[in-house]
Design goal:
The structure is a homodimer. Chain A has 14 helices and 12 strands. The first copy, chain A, is of the alpha/beta class. β2 of chain A pairs antiparallel with β2 of chain B, so a sheet runs across the interface. The first copy, chain A, binds a DNA duplex through α2 and α4. Chains A, B: It comes from Cedecea davisae.
DNA sequence: TTGAAAGCGTTACCAA
DNA sequence: TTGGTAACGCTTTCAA
């Protein structure tokens, strides 16, 4: 019969101390003489002792898990974001519980499951959690942070790219690049971030003196992603001079769609997309884009989580992350 | 003072039964009269009772967690694979513990952490776990399955795309498409799957009567990914007629690199890449590729996990997943 | 069918 | 500084 696994009891016995001392030695928590500490640690290593996280979590009412809610991680921007979050989560000594959702119902179930694992925090990168459910989390002292979500639930912290500033950069670039007629490309049923970018674009153009009622048209893609952009392009006879696009996938599809018609940027139109995905930098696209600082977004998300864990009742906070214009090939140099 | 959370005890009291009965009602495990079952379930719903997974796992010595080891999920193929795995894991009622590793050391630590959470299984999509460590898992009855790894550790199951068959398809396509001189493009320090594809390509050409000693050259990219492919292209004066490439990212980079020199497929050379990533299908590339069936790979991975959980001592198995040639624009029609 | 009780492996409080 | 002990919340014998 094989011993299933080494427990604190085993270590205690072998080191000639009590379980309690073992716990203290390993957790640096509670007073213990340096000598015994050394000895226990040595024995623990000898025996290959590993704390049982389930037991630890049960006792502490909190696991070292952080729940992450994502969707469609095939999308390059989303996988970049997940990448950044995983790195940050691991850097802080947590493990990521990742769930991909396909509906709001799945989001609810997931949030429950996270709670059942007594996670140390939840990061929502997709969907809109119902306020009631989030309140349950808050009541259980589980910090929740939303990324690029509309900051509207009390007790939840948010990290968002500064969409408005990004849209303004795009507007300025296009105007100074000589455009007179503008287009805003987004897909139907867009996210909050997408809609926000569109509204801010209009506003920024207004302030730059553009008569947006006349000279700004909305191009609506029938679906999201590359294919949506391509379809939007095929529905157009002659593109506006300066086009701002809600995200990179849409922009790449649109550009390819126009090329199929023999039109290209920057000669026939200028194009700026949001999200600086790797693909937009490639030779075939060299798209001017707005870069979302994924590393900074991830860093702030964890920071909010940790701070709220320390003080659960503090007021909600929203961090806006600076967005940069990456000037490439699909927009003209400003004069 | 707020009640932290509803426990089985609470439900038991309210339903006028014992904790044990509550457990039976919820787990469908152990005999219980339909009437009390109904009643308990009703009360549980009323009170919003949720099983504490930490306590459950501690008692059962197994959590409903499955550990997944990944790396560089920015790569479109890898994020597709992760996507498939997450779907399959959730479909079976598990939660995914995802860790991104950057070194073999991190792999070891991760494997330990997974064990500490008493995961129901581990899926390795990157790195090469040391046999000793895997044996610890095996001893703890934790099933391990490797995806596209060299199947060489006893007690571990594997799921691999049929690289050899894929390479043979590519060879045949290129030969029948009229190529006489061939190239194999891979990056330095390639994975086992990559090397295997290269060897199989040579073998297949041999069998098709090509004098590979003379007419097959190896193009070595100095790094992986798109940039590596581009660099490989820039080191070439005149490309071989038919090029097979270890993966899609490399292939896209190579194609763009050649285009930069004014050469394009299929007129100046033919190109077939492994991994049918979304990008390869796009208008700018329309690359002929070998499709890895991610859904099937994921399905089999979970199947192996579940079967080995049932019978931990069964001999290791390796499933080879069929690969399909997607004929697109970078190879000529066969005559 | 039901309930009592003994774990599962930790941690934290309280005496010593 | 240490050890005993009572949780943590659940599952699973074993009797009744």
């Amino acid at each position: 019969m094989i011993k299933q696994s080494v427990t604190a009891e085993d270590v205690a016995r072998r080191a000639g101390v009590s379980r309690a001392v073992v716990s203290r030695a390993l957790s640096n928590n509670g007073s213990i003489s340096p000598a015994t500490r050394e000895r226990v640690l040595l024995v623990a290593k000898e025996l290959g002792y590993q704390v049982n996280f389930l037991a630890q979590g049960l006792n502490r009412r909190r696991s070292h898990l952080i729940g992450v809610i994502v969707s469609r991680i095939n999308d390059p921007f989303r996988s970049s974001l997940l990448d950044g979050l995983l790195g940050e989560i691991q850097r802080h000594g947590f493990q990521a519980l990742v769930t991909e959702i396909r509906s709001e119902q799945e989001l609810e179930d997931t949030l429950r499951h996270f709670a059942q694992f007594r996670v140390s925090g939840v990061i929502v990168t997709s969907g809109k959690p119902p306020e009631a459910l989030v309140n349950e989390c808050v009541q259980q002292q589980i910090p929740v942070v939303g990324i690029n979500r509309q900051p509207d639930i009390p007790g939840v912290d948010y990290v968002c790219s500064d969409n408005a500033a990004g849209a303004a950069l795009a507007a300025e670039q296009l105007v100074r690049g000589g455009c007179r007629r503008f287009g805003w490309l987004n897909n139907d049923n867009s996210t909050w971030a997408g809609r926000m970018r569109g509204e801010a674009f209009r506003l920024a153009l207004d302030e730059l003196g553009v008569d947006t009622a006349r000279n700004l048209v909305t191009l609506l893609a029938p679906q999201e992603g590359y294919d949506g952009g391509m379809q939007a392009a095929s529905a157009i006879k002659s593109p506006p001079e300066g086009i701002f696009c809600a995200n990179a996938q849409l922009a790449c599809g649109f550009l390819d769609g126009m090329r199929q018609q023999g039109k290209d940027a920057p000669q026939d139109f200028q194009l700026i997309g949001f999200d600086n995905t790797p693909q937009t930098a490639q030779y075939g696209y060299r798209l001017t884009t707005l870069n979302q600082n994924v590393a900074e977004i991830s860093r702030l998300a964890l920071m909010h989580l940790l701070e709220r864990a320390r003080d659960p009742l503090q007021p909600s906070r929203t961090s806006w992350v600076k967005v940069d214009l990456i000037h490439r090939h699909t927009s003209l140099p400003t004069t």
